[in-house]
Specification:
Layout (H helix, E strand, L loop, with lengths): L4 E6 L13 H18 L4 H6 L2 E12 L8 E10 L4 E10 L4 E13 L4 E2 L3 H8 L9
């Protein structure tokens, strides 16, 4: 099995809280950055999605905090789309320190919204597949 898509992020001092560790909300920003980076690697830009009249939406997100991150820590943020049937898909992500320690796990359910109808599209895989230059990055 291939390694999941991953981007590297260095924790910046201004992202930390009064205890000196990464603010809890920033983990979600790192996960979001990895998701958009994956789409870009697949050849899909935000403007491509808007041009089709669709946009990705988060329907549910769970973060499991495992170990603290501090300013200067370098982390790898993975991202893998897990396709099922229907209007939604899962996104599984891990934020891992350089020494391999898991700092957080982010699991989510997403969909692709028709921006005119304000409803989820019936088969988001086909929208992504039709736009992607490298659909294998998306697990398609």
């Amino acid at each position: 099995m291939a390694e999941p898509f991953s981007v590297t992020v260095v924790v910046r001092g201004y992202e930390t809280d009064t205890q000196g560790h990464l603010n809890q909300a920033v983990y979600l920003q790192y996960a979001e950055h990895a998701r958009w980076s994956l789409l870009q690697r697949a050849g899909i830009r935000q403007t491509d999605l808007l041009g089709k009249g669709v946009g990705p939406v988060a329907l549910e997100v769970t973060v499991r905090y495992r170990r603290e991150l501090r300013a200067g820590d370098e982390v790898a943020v993975t991202c893998a789309f897990v396709w099922g049937e229907g209007k939604t898909f899962r996104i599984e992500q891990t934020i891992r320190k350089a020494d391999g320690t898991v700092a957080a796990e982010v699991s989510g359910v997403g969909g692709l919204m028709d921006l005119a109808e304000r409803r989820l599209v019936a088969d988001p895989r086909e929208y992504f597949r039709s736009l992607a230059d490298a659909s294998e990055v998306l697990g398609l």
